[in-house]
Amino acid sequence: MSDVGRDRETIAVIGDGLIGTSWSALFLAYGYDVALFEPAASGRDHVAVRIDAAMAQIAEVAQTLPAPGQLRLTENLGDTVSDAIWVQENAPENVPLKRELYFAIETEAPAGITIASSTSSLVWSELSAEMADPSRLITAHPFNPPHLMPLVELYGSDRKRVDAAACFYRTLDRHPVKMKREAVGHIANRLSSALWREAVNMVAEDIAEVEDIDAALVYGPGLRWSVVGSHMAYHLGGGAGGIAHYLSHLGPSQERRWQDLGSPRLDEATREKLVDGITAETRGRDVLELEAMRDDGLIAVQRALKGRRF
After folding, report:
1. Beta pairing partners, 33
2. What is the gyration radius of the CA atoms in the chain, in angstroms?
3. Which one has a higher pLDDT value, 39 or 115?
């Protein structure tokens, strides 16, 4: 792991919701001080407890970590970013709000530092449209929770800045991917949305119950995809001839499956089926218990994947 950040440089984190808190824990665990901005007093309740819990989970995954950084909760944006080397913005998905923040950050932060937005669906061109220097902004979308999910999806107009961002996130043991052009939902959310669309369709069409659909994904393609991606999985499914053989031999059958996929509507009947299905699958367990089970599983998978990159 790189020594970058071990001289107690400060990262500014804007927003202390699920994503901002998770990012803060990651930065702190890897030796950065964090100035965490949350103007609402109610939003700052229990922040330190949540961050400590996340840092403990990071320690279960990471092989070595530096001495942790110091957390500072702030109410003033200028104070938050004034001595930062990096800004990770996690405000709600509201374009006017984010543009207002970027204006303030450009005014108050050191000249030229990167402003990274965790936006899950908004695109760079829309977010950066009113900035004095749009090249300073990149979209850096993590998967929730960022402290356990290595993926960070990057896009920006300045390719050198994007490359530098990729290097930075690698020092945090993240796995950055770069987009060639912007797209709503980036890469992973588009893939997730496509998959969930068909999962919802199967519920709406009474093909299977919610719990069985989830189990089919977890113990089937989801298990395989945690080791190889979708393209690599089909390459390996083509035998000695690889993807070329698969496409020539089984391409038509793949097209037939595509044509049979549905386009469900989230109408009242479908929503009721989904809610009833999840109620059955949770078996009375609340969200906190389910999150803990998810996180334990993510930690175990992370350990298993250490050093196994395709």
Report:
1. 10
2. 21
3. 115
